[in-house]
């Protein structure tokens, strides 16, 4: 036997879930232009006894590449992550390849984390060439041969969806993701390019409309149930 | 009610009105469930049926029948999303036994098991959980055909690995004769939101009408008792 209270609590549950989904939609929308951002979806499902619940899923599909022609911008083609070591010594993984050089001459990520185990650039050089397997070559002066000074490592995970999202456009290894596996022979790195976010803005608009409709109809039913409640209590009139 | 053995008062009408109000409330509950399920993947709406033999089958005579029409298919571009374009269900292994679902949002774990969003294992046609013995480097290399046959293409040596066939069954758990599994799609619910909203209106009015009837009968009963008391 269902009660009015039960119906109302189900609808409130639905509204809360829809609001949470809207939160993820807006965070995706806000990160439309974030380099290498991976869209997040709040997937709702009917749990046991028709109770709504949801899980967060990460869309790991690659975004499109944007040519920037900056020497230290790299984009990853296909799957994979670049390991970086932050100031605390933790190893994080990122696909955001907008690298820079810090005061000690090391190649660092946006948040000042060393790329790989640390690749040191000399103070004086003419040109940097990063080949498709991540090898960093520099040319000291014009017409001089290129010298190899390091390699940007690329790792892959068995289950990239299991990675935990950390601060500053990075991810952390978890039990569910499996161990990182270093790729040796590959051709994934593109110099002078950045990977754009994989968010589809138009799909998000559609999503917003649907969630909005769901919330509005839920609140509308709550109103009707509330009226019925009132009328039932005041039956002796 | 019998007063002085002479006056007959039929209070059955009042009970009927109360019962009708209960019925409308239960129907609203079904509609309510459909509205909650509107943006849930693979949800199938319930259609309330009221039997006219209410006197014989209990107070409500209300039953809900599942509408198994195919819902709206939505393109997601996720290679592990599958939508059934025909009537039928996927089989999943839950702690409470094998269950059916139309929710085709699947994912892989690090051991190669195909899981639903609730982390239940998806069954293959042989009744065993589907397991990828060859994990693809890139999900884009997974190809699923109309019959649910899953293949992984290894781009390095252009080999095709057979993984298995995902089970698609009907409501009685027997395999479907004709499959239509669509990779990269999810099926949204088959709820039509404005239809549910319209149906709420009639229930609302029905409730009010029965309430009004109850009040009229209650009033006339009160009047009768008062008049009798005067005499």
Question: How would you describe this structure to a colleague?
Answer:
The complex is a heterodimer of chains A (237) and B (231). Chain A is an alpha+beta fold and 237 residues long. Chain A has 2 domains: 94 residues, no CATH class; 131 residues, no CATH class. Chain A is 25% helix and 27% strand. In chain A, helix 1 packs antiparallel against helix 2. With 231 residues, chain B is α+β, with helices and mostly antiparallel strands. Chain B folds into 2 domains: 107 residues; 115 residues, no CATH class. In chain B, strand 1 and strand 2 form a beta hairpin. In chain B, helix 1 packs antiparallel against helix 2. The longest helix of chain B has 38 residues. Classes of the chains: A alpha+beta (237), B alpha+beta (231).
Structure, briefly:
With 237 residues, chain A is of the alpha+beta class. Chain A has helices at 4-30, 201-233, and strands at 40-46, 52-58, 65-67, 74-76, 82-85, 91-94, 100-101, 107-108, 114-115, 127-130, 135-139, 147-151, 155-156, 164-166, 170-172, 181-182, 189-191, 193-195.
Principal-axes shape call of chain A = elongated
Cα end-to-end separation of chain B: 19 Å
Question: What percent of residues of chain B are in strands?
Answer: 25-35%
Which range best describes the helical content of chain A: under 10%, 10-25%, 25-40%, 40-55%, 55-70% or over 70%?
25-40%
Q: What's the β-strand tally of chain B?
A: 17
Which structural class matches the secondary elements of chain A?
alpha+beta
Order of helices and strands of chain B: EEHEEEEEEEEEEEEEEEH
Q: Helix content range of the residues of chain B, please?
A: 25-40%
């Amino acid at each position: 036997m269902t009660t009015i209270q039960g119906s109302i609590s189900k609808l409130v549950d639905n509204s809360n879930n829809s609001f949470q989904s809207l939160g993820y939609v807006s965070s995706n929308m806000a990160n439309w232009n974030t380099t290498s951002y991976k869209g997040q979806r709040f997937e709702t499902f009917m749990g046991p006894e028709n109770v709504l619940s949801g899980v967060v899923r990460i869309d790991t599909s690659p975004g499109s590449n944007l040519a920037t022609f900056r020497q230290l911008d790299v984009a990853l083609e296909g799957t994979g992550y670049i390991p970086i070591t932050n100031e605390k010594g933790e190893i994080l993984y990122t696909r955001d390849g907008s690298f820079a050089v810090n005061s000690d001459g090391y190649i660092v990520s946006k948040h000042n984390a060393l790329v790989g185990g640390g690749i040191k650039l000399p103070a004086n050089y003419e040109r940097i060439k990063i080949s498709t397997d991540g090898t960093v070559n520099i040319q000291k002066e014009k017409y001089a041969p290129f010298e190899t000074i390091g390699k940007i490592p690329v790792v892959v995970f068995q289950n990239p969806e299991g990675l935990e999202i950390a601060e500053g456009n990075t991810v952390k290894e978890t039990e569910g993701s499996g161990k990182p596996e270093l790729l040796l022979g590959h051709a994934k790195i593109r110099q002078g390019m950045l990977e754009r976010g994989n968010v589809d803005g138009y799909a998000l608009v559609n999503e917003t409309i649907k969630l909005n409709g769901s919330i509005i109809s839920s609140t509308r039913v709550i109103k009707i149930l509330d009226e019925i409640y009132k009328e039932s209590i005041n039956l002796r009139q | 009610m019998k007063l002085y053995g002479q006056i007959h008062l039929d209070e059955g009408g009042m009970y009927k009105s109360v019962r009708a109000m209960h019925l409308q409330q239960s129907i609203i509950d079904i509609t309510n469930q459909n509205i909650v399920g509107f943006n849930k993947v693979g949800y199938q709406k319930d259609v309330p049926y009221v039997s006219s033999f209410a006197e014989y089958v209990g107070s409500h005579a209300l039953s809900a029948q599942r509408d198994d029409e195919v819902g709206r298919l939505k393109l997601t571009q996720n290679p592990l999303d599958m939508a059934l374009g025909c009537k039928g269900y996927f089989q999943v292994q839950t702690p409470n036994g094998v269950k059916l679902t139309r929710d085709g949002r699947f994912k892989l774990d690090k051991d190669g098991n195909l899981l639903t969003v609730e982390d239940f294992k998806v069954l293959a046609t042989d009744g065993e959980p589907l397991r990828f013995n060859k994990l693809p480097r890139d999900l884009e290399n997974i190809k699923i055909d109309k019959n649910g046959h899953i293949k992984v293409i290894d781009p390095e040596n252009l080999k095709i690995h057979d993984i298995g066939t995902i089970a698609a069954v009907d409501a009685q758990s027997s395999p479907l004769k004709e499959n239509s599994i669509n990779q990269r799609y999810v099926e949204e619910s088959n709820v039509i939101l404005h239809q549910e909203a319209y149906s709420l209106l009639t229930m609302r009015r029905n409730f009010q009408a029965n309430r009004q009837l109850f009040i009229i009968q209650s009033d006339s009963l009160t009047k009768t008792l008062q008049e009798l008391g005067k005499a």
